[in-house]
Q: What sequence folds into this?
């Protein structure tokens, strides 16, 4: 019996037809043949997360898609989750981690998702290459472990020696329900920001001037702000809520850790980026110093946004403009931090790097006018000519080349008596107060090595050894 003849495949109007020979009928028939489709991208899981925290009703909880492989835990190659009696948390049959808010499973999934989104955000800015945790040197691939309910206290921290982010919970005086710090996108992003910065600048957390400590604390807060500004729905909600005014006092973008703040009686978050603090007002108190830097960057974002919103009013939705403007400013800031000194960096070091990078990127001169103005106003740098256009409302927001004085790319640091003082970290987040970053051998701390309990107690142990002879 001869093999049935097959006619060549023909293509008509993008549908494939194939003519096959039916031997029993003794005839050939043309039938449609399904077009092969490329396999869909299968990796990725959906998570339910608080977009801000449980007290911020709009945007509330929403589903978020993380387009990478996530295993039971949840964990992946960079991040693990640990909650005794709950983890590993298992996804559903579609590999989605969707749980009811308030459950331990939800807290695990939420904390993992926000840490993952934060790390991914920074990696995308740098072109997608993996960013190391501080201990990822010499081939070490250990991940960062997230503890969503690490214990009872009003605290959260990043620990290099424990390779961990720990989020605690507490019941405010007079309240019936606890506040879980892991449920705040701002707090989780802030602590993850410490871990990210410690990976690229290991010499900053354990030493330096008060401003070096301020940069670490500010990076945490700015990480939370830029994470919100990188998410389409948050940007849309922010613009709708504020009508595009980033200085609106009710705007959740500038208010950080709202639920934690309200437990302490603070109506606009634990901290607020929309502040007017100057360096002469904050001494050597690192938490307040950080707000000077955070505030200057936030105001610069608001200025650039105002300019671009006007310039692109006819062609782009204002929410899309904010998304783009924030991403560009964040990249300039991250590149500036990377280029700043490995030890003892100051605000002026970072501002000057930002001016240079902005210029090299071909950004309009008015961007640098904003930067110079905001950081001069806050007494971070000194301008050779008085900068008054901003305070007098004379900046021409429709002129991309608007300058006050020259387009300087390097400015002198404004000197303050507290510059050489030791860091006062007493009002910082849990990370900055950990003994591992303030005690033991300063050289070992600044080298980026992990400080053990024995290192921290080495002085006392030496004394005891002498006493116990
Ligand atoms: Zn912090």
A:
């Amino acid at each position: 019996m001869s093999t049935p003849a097959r006619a060549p495949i023909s293509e008509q109007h993008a549908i494939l037809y194939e003519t096959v020979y039916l031997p029993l009928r003794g005839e050939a028939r043309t039938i449609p043949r399904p077009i092969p489709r490329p396999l869909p991208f299968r990796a990725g899981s959906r998570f339910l997360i608080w977009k801000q925290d449980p007290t911020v009703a709009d945007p509330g909880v929403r589903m978020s898609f993380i387009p990478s492989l996530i295993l039971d835990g949840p964990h992946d190659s960079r991040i693990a989750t640990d909650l005794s009696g709950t983890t590993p948390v298992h996804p559903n049959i579609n590999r989605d981690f969707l749980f009811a808010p308030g459950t331990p499973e939800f807290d695990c999934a939420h904390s993992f998702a926000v840490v993952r989104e934060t790390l991914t955000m920074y990696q995308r800015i740098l072109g997608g290459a993996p960013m190391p945790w501080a201990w990822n040197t010499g081939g070490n691939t250990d991940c960062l472990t997230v503890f969503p309910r690490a214990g009872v206290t009003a605290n959260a921290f990043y620990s290099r020696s424990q390779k961990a982010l720990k989020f605690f919970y507490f019941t405010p005086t007079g309240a019936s329900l606890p506040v879980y710090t892991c449920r705040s996108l701002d707090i989780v992003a802030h602590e993850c920001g410490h871990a990210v910065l410690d990976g690229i600048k290991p010499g900053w957390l354990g030493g330096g001037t008060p401003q070096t400590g301020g940069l670490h604390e500010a990076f945490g807060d700015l990480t939370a702000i830029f994470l919100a500004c990188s998410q389409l729905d948050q940007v849309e909600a922010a613009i709708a809520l504020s009508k595009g005014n980033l200085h609106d006092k009710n705007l959740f973008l500038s208010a950080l850790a709202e639920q934690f703040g309200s437990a302490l009686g603070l109506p606009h978050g634990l901290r607020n980026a929309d502040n007017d603090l100057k360096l002469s007002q904050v001494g050597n108190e690192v938490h307040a110093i950080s707000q000077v830097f955070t505030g200057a960057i936030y105001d610069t974002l608001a200025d650039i946004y105002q300019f671009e919103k006007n310039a692109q009013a006819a062609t782009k939705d204002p929410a899309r403009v904010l998304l783009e403007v924030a991403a560009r400013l964040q990249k300039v800031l991250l590149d500036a931090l990377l280029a700043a000194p490995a030890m003892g960096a100051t605000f002026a070091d970072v501002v000057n790097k930002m001016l240079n990078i902005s210029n090299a990127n071909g950004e309009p001169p008015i961007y640098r006018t904003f930067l110079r103005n905001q950081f001069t106003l806050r007494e971070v740098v000194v301008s050779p000519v008085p900068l008054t256009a901003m305070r007098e409302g004379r900046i021409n927001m429709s002129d991309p080349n608007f300058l006050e004085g020259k387009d300087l790319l390097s400015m002198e640091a404004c000197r303050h008596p507290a510059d050489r003082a030791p860091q006062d970290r007493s009002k910082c987040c849990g990370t900055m107060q950990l003994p591992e970053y303030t005690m033991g051998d300063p050289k070992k701390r600044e080298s980026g090595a992990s400080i053990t309990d024995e290192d921290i107690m080495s002085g006392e142990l030496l004394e005891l050894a002498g006493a116990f002879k």
Q: What stands out?
A: Residues 190, 194, 217, 220, 428-429, 431-432 surround zinc ion (CB under 6 Å).
